[in-house]
C-alpha cells in the first residue's frame, strides 16, 4: 500500500517549491499493522484555541526562520512525542482551514514503523489514536456545528466519541482518494 501511495503524493521538493510560503504544517503519520492506520490527536479544550477539542493531525505554525520540514518535525515531537527523523514520503496539497482562510497549511505524509508509541506530550493534546483507514469510509456521516453564527450540517467521520470534521476531514478525504 505505502510504496504505491508515494507515487500518488506530491513530491516533497515540488511541494516545498509550490507551497513554500505556507505558514503552518501538519504531520499525517501512517503505519501498516495488518492494514493501514493514520494517527490523529484530540486537541485539549482551551479557550485560546480555535480548534479546541477537535480531532486533528499533529502540527501548527512554523516559527520565524524555521523550515516547513523543521516545523513539522518539531510539532510532532512536541505534541505526540515522536521524533520524525525519516524523510516524509510526500505531501498532500496545501489547504487553508475554513475558519482561517489566510493560513496555508502543508500536510507532510510520513510512515511510522518505530517502536515508540505516540502519546499526548503537550498540554495542547488530550489524547491520540491510530485509526484504521478502512474504518474511515464506514464512519462517514454528518454533524451539526455552529459556523459563522449559523447551524450547519458538516460532513464528518463519526466513531464513538471521536468525530473528525472540518479541515482534518478534508485532508483525510484527500488521503482516502489516494489509497482506495
- Residue-averaged pLDDT, rounded? 91
Structural class by sheet pairing and helices: alpha+beta
Contiguous helical run count: 5
Instruction: Give the full name of the CATH homologous superfamily.
Output: Nucleoside Triphosphate Pyrophosphohydrolase
Describe the structure.
The protein has 180 residues and is of the alpha+beta class. The chain has a single domain (2-135), classed as Alpha-Beta Complex (Nucleoside Triphosphate Pyrophosphohydrolase), CATH 3.90.79. Helices cover 27% and strands 34% of the residues. The chain has 5 helices and 10 strands, in the order ααββββαβββαβββα. The protein has helices spanning 2-8, 12-19, 68-80, 133-138, 166-179; strands at 24-32, 36-43, 55-56, 59-61, 90-91, 105-111, 125-132, 140-147, 150-159, 162-165. Strands 1, 2, 3, 4, 5, 6 and 7 form a 7-stranded mixed sheet that branches. A 3-stranded antiparallel sheet has the order 8-9-10. A hairpin with a 2-residue loop joins β8 (140-147) and β9. The longest helix has 14 residues, at 166-179. The radius of gyration is 15 Å and the shape is globular.
Amino acid at each position: 500500500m505505502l510504496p504505491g501511495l508515494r507515487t500518488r503524493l506530491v513530491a516533497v521538493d515540488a511541494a516545498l517549491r509550490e507551497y513554500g510560503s505556507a505558514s503552518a504544517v501538519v504531520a499525517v503519520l501512517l503505519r501498516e499493522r495488518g492494514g493501514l492506520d493514520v494517527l490523529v490527536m484530540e486537541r485539549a479544550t482551551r479557550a485560546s484555541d480555535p480548534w479546541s477539542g477537535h480531532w486533528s493531525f499533529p502540527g501548527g505554525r512554523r516559527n520565524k526562520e524555521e523550515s516547513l520540514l523543521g516545523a513539522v518535525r518539531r510539532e510532532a515531537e512536541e505534541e505526540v512525542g515522536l521524533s520524525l527523523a525519516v524523510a516524509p514520503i510526500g505531501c498532500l496539497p496545501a489547504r487553508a482551514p475554513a475558519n482561517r482562510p489566510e493560513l496555508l497549511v502543508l500536510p507532510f505524509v510520513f510512515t511510522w514503523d518505530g517502536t515508540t508509541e505516540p502519546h499526548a506530550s503537550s498540554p495542547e493534546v488530550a489524547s491520540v489514536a491510530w485509526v484504521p483507514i478502512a474504518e474511515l469510509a464506514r464512519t462517514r456521516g454528518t454533524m451539526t456545528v455552529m459556523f459563522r453564527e449559523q447551524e450547519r450540517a458538516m460532513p464528518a467521520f463519526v466513531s464513538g466519541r471521536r468525530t473528525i470534521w472540518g479541515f482534518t476531514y478534508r485532508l483525510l478525504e484527500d488521503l482516502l482518494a489516494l489509497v482506495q
